[in-house]
């Protein structure tokens, strides 16, 4: 707001109402002003300007005649805001004591107001980096802001009063602006600087008195556009990361209202099809109405720290969630909940209480999420219904035993015994008696009453011959006979005992190669290899790492009665490791992590330390576990690096920087990875 006292000028010449033209001219000239105020009986009653005096002379009046002054003046308190009055051309400001503080012509007041408003405007737009130049109707520069000075690279002292039209090269005729037209997005050049901006006519009291040019430097603008472009790409990169992530990201405000859902919407957990259906809803209501339990939002808000929990929904879907509070200036602003599903992708094998097979000593749960295991289980359960011999192949620690249990449990023999024989662990001289049993007095040291073999014990049920590749050749012949004849003869016995068993064999060796080397009997191999089922190693089904890691952690937490959780970063490291020892190794590592992590959280650093030790270089070493074509290996390595990079840094721009390739290369590769 502008007050009269801000713009008043001092009154320097006061004359009498009957003073001569000559004396007034003398006084005005000696004071170097162009206005004199007229006094009558100690009161200001009017004013006279140079131009009024000239008019009087021009009309033939003598210099000795009295002046003809104007009286369209108004006295106003100088502390009130500037306003304009009808038929008043000059204002006299009076201070609080009633003394004259100065004067202003209305024209000058309007001019000053424009000037001050421009200065204010300049202050406002200075931060926005907009240049402003104002000229009069002769295009002479009367005002320019600091930004304009900086943009043009020329000092104000040089530019003021110069002809802007002459200095500027523009694609439009500036005369059009003086005719009242606004020119928008005009490119112009001055002092080799390229600008883009708008020209506005400047109107005072309806009269065009000049123009205003508001502009920015093209190069700065282009930089800004590029930056905008970068942010746009960043956004789409992030969106892509979210979309391809296995996690559901919920952003909830401090009151519990769900603001956003990004990443993978866990439909079966919410029992809803679209993420939009939960936006704007109160998260507490879902827990309150038992749609899921527990309420991790409440836990996080209550404990004022990052918390983790396994949540279970009414549809029996289990998810692992980490809720992180976000504070701004000490006040809770949001809670971000990251969740991943841990339930198996296919329904687990149905097992009723009374189903539990007598021989299954410990009940182990088969945990998985990968499509590979889902389809393997599908085949396995179909094969389980028949009586066919099954050969389970897979690296050490992939879970062959657990799959053997699964076959048995899904077979019609599930209520009968399942007997496991570890062919590699029984001393050679005992294998025969263990498998087939012996009659009393069969050999020295033998039980006097004789003993049934494992085949006999498994009768009507299943026998699981683990590590079949370790069976000595002479035993292979005997086993072949049992399989063919479906009967066993105890050592030292004369009778044969008919047996009805389903055989499941398992090996981590390449039996075909052993056959070729003469280490395994071909005829036995074909007898066992009726339904071969290959259990893929963990590195070929990375989706299983996360649910297995959660499962083992839950078991150890229960076993040791402690509370520990992974940070999402820690999970990422576990998922990118090669797992040469498969699930057994994963189980061991999780136990080690529990021991080595001192805090409540198992973080990235402790996982790196447990997996790779202190040796930094080992962490950097790409791990190759099997022979493969070089091209395939390079593609695999590239994929792994990009996936790891996206998980770690989140944007293609940052990943390209770390991998020292162009962002375009990363985008291309990512498109390929996503197919
Ligand atoms: N899908 C799974 N879910 C839960 N636990 C699993 C799973 N697969 C394997 N395990 C666990 O991993 C460990 C190793 O599994 P298992 O002994 O069955 O492997 P294996 O293939 O028979 O190994 P080896 O060839 O060395 O005998 C076991 O403790 C087993 O319970």
Task: Give an account of the 3D structure.
It comes from Siminovitchia acidinfaciens. Pfam families: AAA_lid_14 (PF25601), PAS (PF00989), PAS_9 (PF13426), Sigma54_activat (PF00158). Helix content is 39%, strand content 23%. It is of the alpha/beta class. It folds into five domains: 4-106, CBS-domain; 127-222, PAS domain (Beta-Lactamase); 245-341, PAS domain (Beta-Lactamase, 2-Layer Sandwich), CATH 3.30.450.20; 353-536, Rossmann fold, CATH 3.40.50; 551-674, Orthogonal Bundle (Helicase, Ruva Protein, domain 3). The radius of gyration is 46 Å and the shape is rod-shaped. Residues 364-368, 394, 396-402, 466, 508, 548, 583-584, 587 line the site of adenosine-5'-triphosphate (ATP).
Strand order of the largest sheet: 8-7-12-11-10-9
What oligomerization state is this entry in? single chain
Poorly predicted runs are: 345-362
Outline: rod-shaped
């Amino acid at each position: 707001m502008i007050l009269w006292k801000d713009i008043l000028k001092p009154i320097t010449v006061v004359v009498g109402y009957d003073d001569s033209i000559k004396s007034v001219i003398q006084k005005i000239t000696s004071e170097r002003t162009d206005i004199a105020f007229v006094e009558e009986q100690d009161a200001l009653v009017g004013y006279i300007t140079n131009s009024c005096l000239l008019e009087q002379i021009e009309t033939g009046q003598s210099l000795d005649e009295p002046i003809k002054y104007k009286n369209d003046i108004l006295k106003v308190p100088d502390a009130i805001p500037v306003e304009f009055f009808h038929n008043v051309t000059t204002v006299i400001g009076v201070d609080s004591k009633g003394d004259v503080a100065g004067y202003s012509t209305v024209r000058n007041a309007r001019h000053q107001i424009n000037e001050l408003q421009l200065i204010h405007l300049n202050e406002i737009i200075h931060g926005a980096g907009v240049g402003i130049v104002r000229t009069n109707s002769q295009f002479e520069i009367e005002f320019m802001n600091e930004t304009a000075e900086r943009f043009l690279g020329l000092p104000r002292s040089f530019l003021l009063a110069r002809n802007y039209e002459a200095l500027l090269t523009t694609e439009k005729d500036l005369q059009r602006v003086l005719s009242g037209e606004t020119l928008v997005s005009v490119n112009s050049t001055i002092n080799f600087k390229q600008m883009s901006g708008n020209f506005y006519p400047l109107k005072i009291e309806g009269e065009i008195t000049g123009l205003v040019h508001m502009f920015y430097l093209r190069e700065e603008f282009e930089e800004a556009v590029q930056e905008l472009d970068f942010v746009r790409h960043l956004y789409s990169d992030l969106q892509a990361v979210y979309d391809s992530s296995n996690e559901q990201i919920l952003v909830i405000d401090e009151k519990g209202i769900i603001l956003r859902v990004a990443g993978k919407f866990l439909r079966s957990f919410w029992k809803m099809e679209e993420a939009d259906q939960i936006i704007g809803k109160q998260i507490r209501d879902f827990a309150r109405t038992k749609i899921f339990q527990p309420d991790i939002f409440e836990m996080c808000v209550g404990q004022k720290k990052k918390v983790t929990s396994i949540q279970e929904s009414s549809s029996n879907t289990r998810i692992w969630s980490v809720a992180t509070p976000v504070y701004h200036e000490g006040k809770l602003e949001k809670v971000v909940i990251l969740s991943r599903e841990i339930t198996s992708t296919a329904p687990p094998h149905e097992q009723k209480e009374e189903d539990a097979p007598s021989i299954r000593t410990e009940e182990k749960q088969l945990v998985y999420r990968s499509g590979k295991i889902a389809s393997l289980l599908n085949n396995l359960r179909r094969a389980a219904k028949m009586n066919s011999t099954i050969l389970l192949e897979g690296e050490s620690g992939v879970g062959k035993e657990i799959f053997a249990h699964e076959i048995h449990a899904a077979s019609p023999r599930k209520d009968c015994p399942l007997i496991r024989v570890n062919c590699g662990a029984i001393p050679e001289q005992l294998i025969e008696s263990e498998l087939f049993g012996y009659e009393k007095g069969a050999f020295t040291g033998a039980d006097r009453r004789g003993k049934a073999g494992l085949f006999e014990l498994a009768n009507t049920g299943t026998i699981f011959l683990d590590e079949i590749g370790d069976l000595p050749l002479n035993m292979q012949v005997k086993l072949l006979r049992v399989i063919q004849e479906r009967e066993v003869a105890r050592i030292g016995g004369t009778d044969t005992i008919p047996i009805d068993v389903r055989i499941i064999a398992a090996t981590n060796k390449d039996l075909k190669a052993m056959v070729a080397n003469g280490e395994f009997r071909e005829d036995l191999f074909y007898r066992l290899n009726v339904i071969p089922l290959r259990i893929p190693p963990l590195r070929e089904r990375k989706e299983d790492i996360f649910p297995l890691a959660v499962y083992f952690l839950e078991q150890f937490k229960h076993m040791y009665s402690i509370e520990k959780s992974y940070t999402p970063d820690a999970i990422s490291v576990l998922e990118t490791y090669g797992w040469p020892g498969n699930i057994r190794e994963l189980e061991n590592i999780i136990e080690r992590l529990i021991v080595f992590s001192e805090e409540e959280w198992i973080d990235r650093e402790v996982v790196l330390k447990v997996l790779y030790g202190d040796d930094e270089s080992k962490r950097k070493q790409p791990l190759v576990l099997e022979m493969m074509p070089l091209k395939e290996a390079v593609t695999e390595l590239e994929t792994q690096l990009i996936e790891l990079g996206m998980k770690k840094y989140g944007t293609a721009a940052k990943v390209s920087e770390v991998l020292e390739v162009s962002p375009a290369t990363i985008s291309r590769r990512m498109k390929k990875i996503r197919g």
